[in-house]
């Protein structure tokens, strides 16, 4: 038979993932607006005819004529049911093949003109042979398609005499793709149709046989823990038979593609290729498979050659540092100096900066500011509490759960090979049987070695020479000397009360208001109230406690506003000094009123602590009938030795200083430093102990407005000490007006803010003979039995 020229116009029902064959009854769910309109239009006709045709792309939601295949099936709508959401569930039966000619209308639904197509039928031996071959394969159909009633259907198929009807009915039950089904529908002759069906049916039978073979081979290994393994083996065998296992979509192919696109150094690429070859041989169910894959992904994620663009504008650097931090001018200038060298010589090794200072002075935020000013990525991690060297250098891959070290992990997070990397709390590392982390840092922080840093997990040389390392510490005492030699030490000193007030106004108070959800216009903090909070509720070198107190104030105000009804206008609140005891509690620190009149045998010293400076009172008393020197107050060895040296010097020079030597022979001495529960040590209290002992021996009090610090030698020299800025700030906070310092420490006074220096009288001394006249009131010394100007050497009288 030949194709007829008869044409007709039908509404179109596009379907997505299947094809309707002639003679097949198929349920469809219609939800798209145009498709619903097409079904309704067909129902209004007497014949209820509709054109069912497959879409080329199932993701197209509003297909046009060009989105449909050119051959479809004319069908009759048998049954219709409408759901509550407007979706139509219809039962359509294919009648015959038709070819789509042209569009008749597009709105409200697609209607096209079609032409009937008939199969070319050949009653020759080849058709009969193909039909019998298909019917023989149908004996395995119940195993191919495991569905209720399939055995009865297979038996009926074997009795079917019309080869085209047999082909369409069998094809509708096979698991074919839309393209394969469409090829069957577009077959122009019975021979072509049967050939295509036989090939598809044979492929399904082969997949069935392969599945049975895999199942039988793996049957002995079936167990609860191996279920996943069997499923993967089945999938792998099926993919190999279908030729789909070697594509770029596979896991191994995707990994190969990433390795080819990565810009890896040659020595790294060789190692990666070797590990990739190992991965290809390892079964996916093996634990080594995941270890190798994780390792390769780490290598691909590391920035072997990626560098961030650097902008070294010193004016911008100064601007950023000034915006982020108030004061600490010397620290900022030191940082700018290092960056200036990098600007003039980009190939120079980046310095290893070590910011040392008390808690809360802004060491970590300085690192963030440096990174922002340079335009580099910033990463940080803390070294505090680390005891295991593997935390920095990683674990070898032979260990279960091995991980790369923190350095490599930080580089992976940064994504570039030249970040600013901050190592916090470098002074708080420990060491035990697992190794010494400080020893691992020696290579990491050495510019001559870190260009080939080897992490134990990575086991490849990684270049750290372009990293800008910054470390922070509260003290240098616990850091090993070899590690200190590799770092540029920058000391970040504490702040004066005026600097704290300015920092609070610029940074802390606005930040706390924002965190509490308050506007600056809603809450006012007068200057005198802020000064009161600084003086009476905090005593620190930094501003961390101050920020906590300001946070408590903003929370109290936020609670007051939150308790108001929504329709009540919020009036601005001014924090008064009278509400501080209620909101912040009792004042934590009080002026030393009891020390305004210092008794005999007591001298005021200055001490350095990790949280800043402090005022230390050293008390002495004579013990008649004794000859011993008693020391209490948890004094360390160095401090005890300072007390013995001070007593020995006064005793050996008693005649020259006008002291009664018999008092040394008849009396022992007890030296006590209050706050006895706190351990104390260091040589800074030497001249304070000598002054307190001298006060006991002459029976006269030391001036209450004078504090002192300095180490004493057995020959009477006053030697320099550290922490001058912190000690001077502590004296200023305590209301001290006069300070006695070693002359060698005069240069350290430039670190003290000018407004603090203006409020103090600083007396530089070189020998103990200069300390004693300056420590005692002039009126009392002129009337005393000893320590008069006439009994001192001429050099001491001239300086006094």
Automatic annotation (TrEMBL):
InterPro entries: AAA+_ATPase, ATPase_AAA_core, Lon_bac, Lon_bac/euk-typ, Lon_lid, Lon_proteolytic, Lon_Prtase, Lon_prtase_N. It is found in: Cytoplasm. GO terms for cellular component: cytoplasm. Residues 774-800 are annotated as: Disordered. Its EC number is 3.4.21.53. Residues 597-778 form the Lon proteolytic domain. GO terms for molecular function: ATP binding; ATP hydrolysis activity; ATP-dependent peptidase activity; sequence-specific DNA binding; serine-type endopeptidase activity. Residues 781-794 have a biased composition (Polar residues). ATP binds at residues 357-364. Its main location: cytoplasm. Residues 10-205 form the Lon N-terminal domain. SUPFAM superfamilies: P-loop containing nucleoside triphosphate hydrolases, PUA domain-like, Ribosomal protein S5 domain 2-like. The active site is at 684, 727. It is an enzyme of class 3 (hydrolase). One of its GO terms (biological process) is cellular response to heat. Induction: By heat shock. Keywords: ATP-binding, Cytoplasm, Hydrolase, Nucleotide-binding, Protease, Serine protease, Stress response. It catalyses: Hydrolysis of proteins in presence of ATP. Belongs to the peptidase S16 family. Homohexamer. Organized in a ring with a central cavity. ATP-dependent serine protease that mediates the selective degradation of mutant and abnormal proteins as well as certain short-lived regulatory proteins. Required for cellular homeostasis and for survival from DNA damage and developmental changes induced by stress. Degrades polypeptides processively to yield small peptide fragments that are 5 to 10 amino acids long. Binds to DNA in a double-stranded, site-specific manner. This is Lon protease. It comes from Nitrospira japonica.
